[in-house]
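#random but structural
TW: two for the price of one
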Amino acid sequence: MPSKILAFRMQPQKNTKWCWAAVTSSISKHYWKSSLWTQCRVVSNSLKESSCCDMNLPSFCNVPWALDYALRITDNLKAHWNYWVAFPVIVREINNGRIIGARIAWSNGTGHFIAIVGYLDSEEEKFYAVDDPRPKSPKSILIEESRLINNYQGSGKWSDTYITQKPSKRNMIRFTYVDRQLLKRANKHVGVMFPKRQRRFNWSELTNTNILLPHFVYEIPFNSLKSKDHNMKAISFRIVNSEELLIIDVDRNSEEAKIQEIIYDQQYVKDYIDLLFYVIDMGMNRPASFSISFVIQAELNYSAFCLKNIDSPQENLFISFDPNAEKTFLSYSETEYFNMLENFAQDSNSYEDNFGG
């Protein structure tokens, strides 16, 4: 009896009209576990509205949308057909590890999106394994073929099919993974210094890069600016936790991965996270694969996120970070950013040994 069900986790849709966002985000994470395409970010990018990830969701963000448009944004759409497909097509896709999206047309003229994640071919009937994002519906269902086509949950009819795929290397942000031992050590320090925060959230259970957002921190040595040498030196590995509003810097050069700093200024961390997600959005909307790092120049008190083009370093971008400024994020090419710092370095004055400023 041929059968196969893919290991797929359907997220419950976070708002009443976000089935399309839940299916898209779940499919993106199926192909790429560290995908940063959350439901609200799928919606924000689809509607071109940055406020759709705000805590107080604007009503214009909770709207129905086309699944094929959303899957194109995450680079997961292979084909869209305005009809249901035969059982052998589903078998082929599932055997190749690919999820199939399906639109259900209700009798009142509205629609709903689900995912087909497997099949069962018995001698008597053919079944599909279906995952539904609606919170009040059964999440995982084994449903007979004709029922899915004509009578899904009573009146629903399978009207459209979406063949999905792994994303290409473009639109991918590369983050470094964090090992569990490091998280346990971080948890110990956080538990001692911030017991109230630790009770709300257990660091030792976290291994998801979507929450930790790990990246490297680089220093631009002042002397390299004087000599006009575009030099950056890695000084730490950074973990950001948006739930706890903590930043932890770790020495990645030592075998024990010693913790160097814990930044717990909540407003600073909020501003840092805001800019980090802005930079992530920039990277995902550019036709290349990027990595993200944070760059500081201590003497001039300048810092920025670096959006590094993996394939074309000449296209690197620097996005200036100023937690005290209005949220107007300024972007520079690498040449522009270093030229600006070099000019400031040339104009800077030396202090007496016992002075500071």
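TW: number two ↓
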Amino acid sequence: TMVYGYAMARVAGAERVMLPVLDILQSIPVLGFLPGFVLGLVHLFPHRNMGLEIASVLMIFTGQVWNMTFSFYASLRSIPPDLVAVARLANLSWWERFCRLDLSFAATGLVWNSMMSMAGGWFFLTVSEAFVLGAHDFRLPGLGSYMSLAIERGDAQAQLLGVLAMLGMIVFVDQLVWRPVVAWAQKFTDEEAGGASESWLLERLRRSRLWQVCSRVAGLVRHRSRRTATQVESSCSRADQLRQLGKRLTVALIITGALYGLAKYVHLLSTITSGEWLNLFFSTTATFLRVLSAVALASLWTIPVGVMIGRSPRWSRVFQPIIQMAASFPAPMIFPVVVGGMLTFHAGLGISSVVLLLLGTQWYILFNVIAGSSAIPRELWEVSRLARFSWLLRWRKLILPAIFPSLLTGWITAMGGAWNASIVAEYMKYRGQTLTTTGLGAAISQATERGDFHVLAAAVGIMAATVVGFNRLVWRPLSHRAQTRFTLSA
């Protein structure tokens, strides 16, 4: 996240190549990585489960990393110019600027998106631990495979036990990890948030002797790092030639690998019939409309609620832990309940899948809106109050412009998440029967299950092209507008 996001934002010319690559990687669904990971790693570890375990971890990783990278990149591009000028005047080294300015400014968004990434990992747990690839049925020991089997069999008692186990794990992680981290990250906002986020664990740690010892060690490390950074910068010229050679070798290897992969990919696509292409394009249109509907419905409630929570310490204390736990709960575990309820009202999976996509993507927008609204300086709220702004004028002139960069990040990652979630929402096994609807997610799931790698390759390619095209035509102009008009600058 930090290496890739920093390179995109800071290295001259890197954004032109790295941002489209990130768009493509974000748009590839988890099952798109499945054949390569599983087949390659199973061959490396033919007699052990190690290959499957590594493949499962890598698939979960692909459902987590992209929104964190986008958040870090967007934060770096939104740093006010006056802060950059102060860092330059203070003669900060590269390392000091990275730690004191870049990480500090990106901390709030990065923390909230890390929580969303954790939720994304839980979301695809059932797919990552239990999957069918051609004639092979792979299952790993874990809660995801347990719930997958319980859903297939329609075992309500087993599903309830799995849900209770997941809730216990979520509460445990929330109390010991996320609540302390969110409370700690408050110090990186423009102002004191008035105790908006509290953590009993963090308060006890701060009063402990261990905290004092760690603070002293951190101070010594910072002092040494300044001296080391100065020495490294003074000797960088000696290694310039080796660095340039390394860059050229790396680029050559990447280009060679990309050309080889492209040749294999084109060979797979050459076997697809015109009827299969037509079916895939119809499926893409159906999924695209569902994704847009889910993001629009999510925005209707997440924007006002996120602003309310982000600006009010009292509401933040009440709702923040609830939202964290709700977002961390994997939506596929309650899909059977939602689908069962929708089928009761004779709503097919075509409509139900929009609700399922909404359950999986709304948190991307909510977390980013909370992060954006909590970073609005108190002085701006006071100015709007003293100027007697109406409710509508406050939203137009203060709230929406202030949260727009964060909201845009939420929209981008929500749409990417919705495309990914379509593989679960448009195709599922429910009480011994298979429910499916027309859509690209269903096509990918069916192709994976049948082992039709040529259809899978085409479907993944179409999904990637659709997402990248939408990003280029819609999100990129809006992102440029957010960086030029809606940042806190003098």
